[in-house]
């Protein structure tokens, strides 16, 4: 029987928003939302938090996640991308005699994530025999009409040939929603990459996601969260 693990990556360091991963968000630590949605989906054999921080580990356990081992210092600095962190977790589990067929990496700052999206992503992953499925947002305006701006605030088009092209005639483009990656575990170990040539995007609406890099983003995420809950009540 196939085994699935949810890995929530929550290291202790955060410079732009101090203690970001356990900062209170609408009444509880923001990390608790990622744990809660993973547990509520009922599709994982284990929901764990990968962290180098003892306080984060205690919060994770309080809200129902496991912390079977701490993240190494090598995988906890500012420049380590997500893939090596996930590889480390899978390899540590193998040392404990636990093997997983699929993994889902959920970021700790994804309070707008809904369990239905996790279930949908896993369905697509298996149905189409993919390496990875992750949520995306469509850019609100064509990036082909983007400008660059110099130190004097002078602007110029990056692709001037698109200046007079109608926006609706330009190809739609998308960005990573920054919520989760549902993956084939063995492919991750083999390719050491989240995105391969067998990856699909799951399109979200603007109200379903919010990248949180600063306090303005944080307030926008809280607005979206409260707005959604008010409309569901």
Automatic annotation (TrEMBL):
Q: Which InterPro entries does this chain map to?
A: CMP-NeuNAc_synthase, Cytidylyl_trans, Nucleotide-diphossugar_trans, PseF
What species is given as this protein's source?
Answer: Leptospira vanthielii
Task: Please indicate which superkingdom the organism of origin belongs to.
Answer: Bacteria
Which Gene3D superfamilies does this entry report, sorted A to Z?
Answer: Spore Coat Polysaccharide Biosynthesis Protein SpsA, Chain A
Annotated NCBIfam families = PseF
* An MF annotation (GO) of this entry: nucleotidyltransferase activity
Under the heading PANTHER family, the entry gives: HAD SUPERFAMILY MEMBERS CMAS AND KDSC (PTHR21485), N-ACYLNEURAMINATE CYTIDYLYLTRANSFERASE-RELATED (PTHR21485:SF6)
Q: What is its EC number?
A: 2.7.7.81
What's the name of the protein?
Pseudaminic acid cytidylyltransferase
- Decide whether keyword Nucleotidyltransferase is in the record: yes
Which UniProt keyword terms apply here?
A: Nucleotidyltransferase, Transferase
């Amino acid at each position: 029987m196939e085994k699935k693990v949810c890995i929530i990556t929550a290291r202790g360091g955060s410079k732009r928003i101090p203690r970001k991963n356990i900062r209170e968000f609408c009444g509880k630590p923001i990390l608790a939302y990622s744990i809660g949605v993973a547990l509520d989906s009922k599709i994982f054999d284990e929901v764990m938090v990968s962290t180098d921080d003892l306080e984060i580990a205690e919060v994770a356990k309080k809200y129902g996640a496991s912390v079977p081992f701490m993240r190494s210092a090598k995988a906890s600095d500012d420049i380590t991308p997500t893939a090596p962190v996930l590889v480390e977790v899978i390899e540590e589990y193998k040392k404990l005699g636990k093997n997983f067929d699929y993994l889902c990496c959920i970021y700790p700052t994804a309070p707008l994530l809904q369990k239905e999206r996790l279930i949908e992503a896993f369905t697509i992953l298996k149905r189409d025999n993919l390496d990875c499925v992750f949520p995306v947002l469509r850019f609100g305006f064509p990036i082909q009409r983007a400008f660059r701006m110099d130190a004097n605030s002078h602007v110029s088009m990056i692709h001037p040939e698109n200046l007079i092209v109608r926006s609706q005639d330009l190809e739609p483009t998308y960005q990573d929603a920054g919520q989760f990656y549902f993956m084939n575990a063995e492919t991750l170990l083999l390719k050491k990459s989240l995105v391969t040539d067998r990856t699909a995007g799951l399109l979200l609406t603007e109200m379903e996601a919010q990248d949180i890099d600063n306090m303005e983003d944080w307030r926008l995420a809280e607005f979206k969260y409260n707005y959604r809950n008010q409309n569901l009540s």
